[in-house]
Design goal:
By secondary structure, the chain is mostly beta strands. The protein is built from one helix and 28 strands. The chain is globular.
């Protein structure tokens, strides 16, 4: 087990690159550990000058399949080159809201962005762009609804957008769209156990094969198939309700889900819905969680700026 000292602010998000490096976005830049199992100080990838500080939960990183490019979303979108550490802002015209949600296709060649205006009337713009030229829109869709999140499906040809009207926190629909055109090809009404956890879709976790997602609230997690959100999900209950669940992630092992509860990581068996392993460290409350693609390492970030890395 390694403890990495990152920054004097919470570690709201963690991600492993395909090459095994560990990345965490902070207000000063993205902190990177090329070999997190060995510890040591991070390499700091600075934001471009126009980049802004982002609020809690609004910073995520994603990677192209080869690991050469990193996509960072939040108040703005930035493309980082892992080899040089240089970041390039991705411009948007007339943003509806400074918060931007981004999702990469499985091959890393295409991205879907969402700009949303909350309140009433609700408005969102969904944008598709090829990363070969991320400054040019391949297509745009303007919606009179608030789009909380988009998730590319396992086939790599479609994505799901979670949409709701204005200030109402119940989802009216989950729309399946064509990744290359943005056209709607299907619409579903989520199961009631997913509607209860609607506000957490923006922070929901996806399995490596994109065939499962996990949406959570303080009291539990709903694991579901994003291709069929009408089906009853697998619900894992957090008892007692406090401390609350703060993060979820899928380990490489099949039929497992890991959650952070206070200072512990609990691993659930999705078949029995029971906790099969509990890990605890005296480092602070755990608020983020990630697993490496090769299944050798895991990491959890604390609200005090520390990161615990351990062998699976």
């Amino acid at each position: 087990m390694q403890t990495l000292v990152a920054a004097w602010e919470p570690v709201w998000h963690l991600a492993f690159s395909p090459a095994g490096g560990l990345y965490a976005p902070f207000s000063a830049g993205v902190y990177a550990w090329p070999n997190p199992g060995a510890g040591g100080p991070p390499v700091v990838l600075p934001y471009p000058e126009r980049e802004q500080y982002w609020d809690r939960g609004s910073r995520r990183v994603g990677f192209s399949r080869g690991g050469g490019r990193m996509l960072l979303d939040g108040a703005n979108v930035v493309l980082h080159d892992e080899a040089t550490g240089r970041g390039t802002p991705v411009p948007f015209d007339a943003p509806l809201h400074p918060f931007v949600v981004a999702e990469l296709s499985p091959d890393g060649g295409f991205a879907v962005f969402v700009q949303s205006q909350s309140g009433w009337p609700a408005r969102s713009r969904i944008i598709g762009r090829s990363l070969a030229d991320p400054t040019v829109n391949a297509w745009t869709v303007d919606e009179g609804r608030y789009v909380d999140a988009v998730r590319v499906l396992a086939d790599g040809d479609r994505f799901l957008s979670f949409e709701r009207p204005g200030t109402v926190h119940d989802y009216a629909r989950a729309v399946t769209r064509d990744l290359r055109t943005g056209a709607a090809v299907g619409e579903q009404h989520p199961h009631e156990d997913l509607v209860r956890r609607a506000g957490w879709y923006a922070r929901a976790a996806a399995s490596g094969d994109r065939r499962r997602m996990a949406a959570f609230q303080d009291d539990g997690v709903a694991v579901f198939d994003p291709a069929d959100v009408t089906a009853p999900p697998v619900v894992l209950t957090n008892k007692p309700r406090r401390p609350a669940i703060a993060a979820v992630a899928f380990p490489p092992a099949a039929d497992r889900l890991a959650v952070t509860v206070g200072q512990a990581v609990k691993v659930f068996d999705l078949r029995t819905r029971k906790v099969v392993r509990t890990l605890t460290w005296n480092v602070g409350n755990l608020v983020s969680l990630a697993f490496s693609a090769d299944g050798t390492l895991a990491a959890a970030g604390t609200d005090a700026g520390r990161i615990v890395v351990w062998d699976i």
